[in-house]
Amino acid sequence: MKSVSQIRKRTALIFLIPVTIILLSSALYPLISTLYLSLTDAELENFLNPNYVGFINYIENYEGMWYGVLADSLFWNSVRNTLVFTIFSISLEVVLGISFALIMLIENKLKWFVRAAVLIPWAIPTIVSARMFEWMLQDQFGIFNYMLIGLGILEQGKAWTTDPQTSMIVIIIIDAWKTSPFVAILVYAGLKALPNEVLEAGKVDGTNGITQFYYIIFPLILPAIAVAIVFRGLDALRVFDLIYLINAGSKDIMSMTVYARREMFEYSHFGFGAAASTMLTLIIGVIAVIFIQRTRLHKLDEME
Amino acid sequence: MTKLYDKIFKYGLQIIVIIFCVFPFYYAVMTSLEGSAAVFVPNFFPTEINPKNYIYLLFEHNFPNTILNSLFVAIVTVSISITISYFAAWSLSRVNFQGRSMFLFVILAISMFPQIAVLTGMYQLFLNFKEFYFNIFDLRVKGITSLLWLCFTYTMFNIPFTVWVLTTFMKGVPKEIEEAAIVDGASSFLILRKIFLPIMTPAIFTTAIMAMIAVWNEFLFALTFTATNSDRTITVGIALINGTVEYEVPWGSIMAASVIVTVPLVIITLLLQGRIMSGLTAGSIKG
Predict the structure, then answer these.
(1) What per-residue confidence (pLDDT) applies to B253?
(2) What band does B284 get if pLDDT is binned at 50, 70 and 90?
(3) B231 and B142, same structural domain?
(4) Best CA proximity match to A34, nearest among B224, B113, B118, B127
(5) Exposure string over A33-42, b if 16+ CB within 10 A, otherwise e
(6) What would the mean pLDDT of B94-102 be, rounded to a whole number?
(7) Residues B37, B70: one domain?
(8) How far is B141 from chain A (nearest CA, A)?
(9) Total structural domains within chain B
(10) Residue B136 near chain A (CB below 8 Å)
(11) Cβ–Cβ gap B239/A205 under 8 Å
(12) B243-283: per-residue pLDDT in tens?
């Protein structure tokens, strides 16, 4: 007769079958076929049965000229934009997130309102946040320009979202607005998990509080911050909606995902687009592995 | 005296955070309530209340249809992923078997995947699916193809998240509760139905809401797999509201649409505040 634990093990494996099937069919299969398509000449007409062409979508030397994703300056431009976006938006989000988390700890009548307010940007769809900010920053009727003109800082309205010098900054700010709450909630949970005495000792009261925070609390919530950075970082590296919505065509802000998608669905270069997305996956993978190694996040389990 | 300053300082900080988080949304609500002339006069408080933008959306813009589409996709996706994940979460949290942490690691890795990495393959699969689907079904139901496809892709992107969160929640259930039932010889299925379900209902509900918000907000796949007015979801719908002339962006209607799709989310989030916070942390910290 089988023991209870053997039966449980068998049942457990049976319960995992549906998840496995779905992940294999909808994650692994498309991933492999994207890899294969990146080695083909797939375009709109022959998309269902393209020809194998080797690595020419990645790089090819044809009559002395270099072609392919790796030789396309626009691709490297999009890599640079994505990295700039990721580094700046995450730095801003970590700073804002920690500040919000500390403010969320304040115990008084406004406590509930602060915690509620912080969740609002998180719940709002990216498309809506993009549209809201676009409207506030609009050059003629936007409230932001109106305020700046009122304060005498600007003479006339500025088109913040379309100006190549400011559009990246605008995108970073919208992203920070939308996702700082997420970082704040993770850090807040980290702070809440600390023993009460630590929090009492490090309570924010003037400059002294800040040094106390830096030396006592900060090292203790570092794991929570590292987790937030990994999650947000991987999200930021694949950024699409914000950039597509604010200005898809501009090469000053185009991200890797926007670049790859544009090749596929605007130019119908599916093979080339697949090569670009494969490169993107590789780049993100390398960054993720380095970061996780560095922060020893894979050892988080043992720390618990 | 310093105590008073300290108090004021703290209130000040809290008010800054509240304004920072709420103002853009407040401003959208205000704009959406103004008539066409008032929209284009910047101000902090509404000068008039005019339902014109909302009426325009309801009757002219195919907007109700996009809401129904999004609801359909969200409900189908979330029910499937929650059901499947509930059973998987039990296996991954209550039973010791070889390869368990490997399985969890793969799930986490998939959840961090860039969607674009599978998009080309997904699109090819979509064209095949469409062909297969058209051969079987009658033309009348063609409109729903893209929506069904979205359900499939969203289920895939939701499952890593729902499995992960439910597993974390289920780990928190004390062992003793299950042990008594095991001794009585109850099957795993019975245990999941009679013992875990009542305890897990709040957690399942929270996870479902969060998965639903994710589906509701998704844009890249929705943009790629929906092509006609009749099968658009709300995010694509809002992205495509544009004036007839380039310089005549209908900001009032865009803001009204934004408010309509956001208000339910904001209400749910406020009502479930504490639960969503624990769900968000369960999704990332522990595991």
Answers:
(1) 85
(2) low
(3) yes
(4) B118
(5) bbbbbbbbbb
(6) 86
(7) no
(8) 24
(9) 2
(10) no
(11) no
(12) 555 556 788 888 999 999 899 888 888 888 888 887 777 76
Q: How far is B31 from chain A (nearest CA, A)?
A: 9
Is there a contact between B91 and A146 if contact means CB atoms under 8 Å apart? Answer: no
Q: Which domains does chain A possess?
A: 1-37 (no CATH), 69-303 (1.10.3720.10)
Total number of residues shown for chain B: 287
Highest mean pLDDT, choosing among A83-92, A160-169, B97-106: A83-92
Residues B136 and B7 in one domain: no
Query: Based on the domain organization, do B35 and B124 belong to the same domain?
Result: no
Range of the domain at B117: 61-284
- Is residue B55, in this structure, part of any structural domain at all? no
Predicted complex ipTM exceeds 0.90: no
Q: Which residues pair with B239 in a beta bridge?
A: none
Whose tokens are 């691709």? That residue is A75
Q: Do B120 and B258 fall into the same domain?
A: yes
Residues B110, B233 within the same domain: yes
The CATH number of whichever domain residue B138 belongs to comes to 1.10.3720.10
C-alpha A133/C-alpha A138 separation (Å) is 8
Residue B91 falls inside a structural domain: yes
Q: Which residue stretches of B195-272 are H helix?
A: 197-217, 220-225, 234-239, 251-271
Q: Taking the CB of residue A261, how many other CB atoms lie within 10 A of it? A: 24
Region for B249 from its dihedrals, namely left if φ exceeds 0, alpha if ψ lies in -120 to 50, beta otherwise:
beta
B254 touches chain A (CB under 8 A): yes
DSSP assigned state of A214: I
